[in-house]
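Q: Could you fold this chain for me?
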Amino acid sequence: MVAGSFGDGQPVSQTEGTGAREDIAADAALVVRVLAGDAEAFAPLVRRYLQPAYNVAYRLLGNRQDSEDLVQEAFLTALTNLRSFDRSRPFGPWFYRIVWTRGLNLRKSLARRAAEPLESERHPGTADPSAEAERSDLADTVLGALAELPERQRLIVQLFDLDGFSGAEIGEMLGLNPGTVRWYLHQGRRALRERLAPFQEALDEG
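A: Sure. Below is the predicted structure, expressed as structure tokens.
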């Protein structure tokens, strides 16, 4: 197993740019150390890219255990194929592409399994029940609207707006140029606004 923690199992927003220019040299240096026989140098790469990779996996599979297994397998695949990595380019998009490709294959093999709901786990609390119900209705409405989008639009909206990936990172992950990513993002956002308009109108009237 690859060392690392997936937190509570739900996707979280990225707060740091995984492909930032200043990280390229640091990642390349770690890769050089790994290829020279320093296996421990792979651990910082795991810590840096574990959660974003899990986000990608979860968007594809919608299931915590499958997503964790996929990320573990992807890290082992990356380690095995590390000599093919171009050290002049960011490590993140290269690794996310591995997660994406293997995730698509895994999803095909799991096609017979009933789809897991994508909604977040809800925990008991002391909040007002009516407020909780209203937030639950809103969350269900948003999730339902997302589910109605064509898959590529849905995934790009989630990766960009919810997980914080850049257009360039998503493009490399999905094999699309940034302009095409922006087009899908625009189309997805517009469709969401149209689907959510009645709900917003009801809230305004209330």
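A (continued): DSSP finds eight helices and no strands in the chain.
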